[in-house]
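task queued by scheduler; priority normal; single chain, no ligands, no partner chains; default sampling; output format set to structure tokens
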Amino acid sequence: MKILLHTCCAPCTIYPLERLREKGFAVMGFFYRHNIHPFTECMQREAALREYAQSMDMKVIYQQEYDLEGFLRKMVFREAERCRICYYERLFTTAKLAKKGEFDSFSSTLLFSRHQNHALIADIGAAAGKAAGIPFHYEDFRTGWETGRDKSIEMQMYRQQYCGCIYSEKERYYPQRKNP
């Protein structure tokens, strides 16, 4: 069984890759980059993933373009729905690529993070799979959160401090002001 795994970063790939291989999947990664800002952050994540993927003998498709403007146009005046839109863009792109590449299914490392809306990811992944005509492999990879985190620290892997978009970067670093 060939599976295309949307990969947001190297640390979040560790446990899902391990689990999928244990289940007998031949795993190929797909690095989607339009949602990662600024560009220097995108490059740091990609470099860490390249190093990790090479060490694990995992092939990865790296998105070539960097459509910051397209991402922002989709988000403007829809900031409250930004995660839904972002999940949709990443999962539908992965589903279409998996179908074109004749994979048996697709999944996402988004299912590893404790910080993401897991139910929404599962729903959008299923819808993307149905639309593209390829099964979405759902698995709750959060059960390996500590394992993946500990291995990424042990490997001295670059570990980002926010999900990737410019909005989450602001939430992470901009001090929240309290009302007087």
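post-processing summary
- The mean pLDDT is 95.
- Residues 2-173 form a domain with the Rossmann fold fold (CATH 3.40.50.620).
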